[in-house]
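for the recovery benchmark. tokens below, seq after
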């Protein structure tokens, strides 16, 4: 559900009225609340929203993500370094 809510807010242009740091914090706060209080999955919430640049694991802001993860989280998850290929999002 929150995945769809982020999409609705994106389509409404809400993020264009906010500073990047505020967008990052708001998205991280929403995901943290959902995961801590309601047992949601951050990867499912942020899937398809790589343009936000929020890592689905550590919830920090990064310019480029791979499979929704920053280079450090990707390496921790898959045991390999990030490469420049078509999988990079």
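predicted aa per position
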């Amino acid at each position: 559900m929150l995945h769809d809510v982020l999409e609705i807010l994106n389509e409404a242009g809400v993020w264009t009225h906010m500073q990047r740091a505020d967008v990052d914090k708001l998205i991280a706060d929403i995901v943290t609340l959902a995961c801590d209080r309601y047992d949601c999955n951050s990867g499912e919430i942020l899937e398809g929203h790589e343009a936000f640049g929020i890592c689905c694991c550590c919830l920090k802001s990064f310019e480029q993500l791979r499979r929704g993860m920053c280079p450090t989280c990707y390496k921790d998850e898959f045991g390999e370094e990030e490469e420049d290929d078509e999988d990079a999002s």
